[in-house]
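TOPIC: backbone geometry
CONTENTS: sequence, structure tokens:
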Amino acid sequence: MVQFRLGFDSVATEKEKEEIFMRLLHEKERQESGYYNLPYEAKALQDSLAYMQYNGEMLKDLTHLVIIGIGGSSLGLKAIDTMLYHLPHRNNIAVKFLEHTDPLKIQKSLTNIQLHTTLFIVISKSGMTIETTSLMKYCIDRYNLLESRAKKHLLVITDNDSPLQRWAKQNEIYNISIQSNIGGRFSVLSAVGILPLMLLGYKVDMILQGAKILQDSFIARKEEHILTKALFMANNHHTLPINILFSYSSSFQDFNLWYVQLWGESLGKIDKDSKKIGLTPISLIGSIDQHSFLQLILEGKQDKTITFLGINQEEYNGLVIPDIQIQGLESTDFVNNISFAKLLTAQKLATMRVLQDEGLPIDCIQLDILDEEHVGCLIMYYELLTSAVGCIFGIQTYNQPAVERGKKLLHAMLHN
């Protein structure tokens, strides 16, 4: 179970919530984004199983996955793997991400990579993303991936009939397609995330089930907190333009980065009145960032909302702080004999209380346990929340025209 608790007062009316809910339904029906359908479709599961069956002999020796992709093509997968890495059924396969063109990072990521035990997965909607294409070319050259015996170690996931898919077919590279109306940052529940996660041994059907449960509940009007929160954030964007996700577990480190891209790239737009609009996402990890950014939240400008994300730590009480007294440090003995999990929970609650006392708007999400179903629910929650805010802003939530402008300028700078 995932618990959602709003800790701020909202003046959202039933009429406002109904209006936004109907806009989302119409958006779903018009297929403005295909992410709404992913929890209900079997395509990603079927495509992934077909790939694994066809390449079973090669995959049984797999020790490394190299994911070649950037932004939405990698962040969602990385987020889910980091959240679920502790599960005992995860396969002993290392995952390396080639995401950008830093030569030092490229060399480090490919250290100890042996072709016969590695699968390179290229993920890109078109293949025209310069980072992805450049990194793919480098790996093709370094590992001779277009040689007949090596081709089975290369997989392409892309839009149907994209330039990248056409290239893959011409070169007899195994490829899997996704629908073109599924944007990269909303694609993690497609084959983009499902296939690598299946290779890693996760129960991907339960990830989809968790997302389906949350969306079904939302459609049944049992998750009104999503609409209330979206209206609060959108209606207060002038005075509260910064949204902080304060996650109390290192397991959420990469999920926070996924949220930053989803929120920032979806909501930073020019609205129907030709005005620039947006909400700025900030990623924090507790309790680490209590010793850095919390000072700014408390005594800096009060222009922020804060969402606390945590886990029911009763499930993780195994590690206990020893009852050791150290001379001169007796003031720290009050935590002796309690679990690290209990300490982390107390730190979160104390921080929440301090922020509430300052009158800052906060809310809280808590997962009973960090498993596939709960993670699927969490992913869908943030996707629906993002879509709801986009509807209120009256923007094109699923495009990224400013990013495309940067790509064109890069081409002009480097094109001879």
In short: The radius of gyration is 23 Å.
